[in-house]
Write a structure and sequence with these properties.
mainly alpha, 39% helix, 0% strand, globular
């Protein structure tokens, strides 16, 4: 499964691609260079966004 897809190709995740991208671009600069960023992946964001 490719990491990047067309924005309309993620309906199974039930997240808005632009919402996810804004979240990532906001969170990423706040993290240390060696920080784990696995929670920023779309399928993990879907878990935290619905919680």
């Amino acid at each position: 499964m490719p990491l990047l897809r067309r924005p309309d190709a993620s309906p199974h995740l039930r997240i808005e691609p632009l919402t996810w991208l804004r979240y990532v671009l906001t969170e990423l600069p706040q993290r240390a260079g060696d920080a784990d960023i696995e929670d920023l992946l779309p399928f993990n964001f879907a878990k935290t966004a619905t919680a």
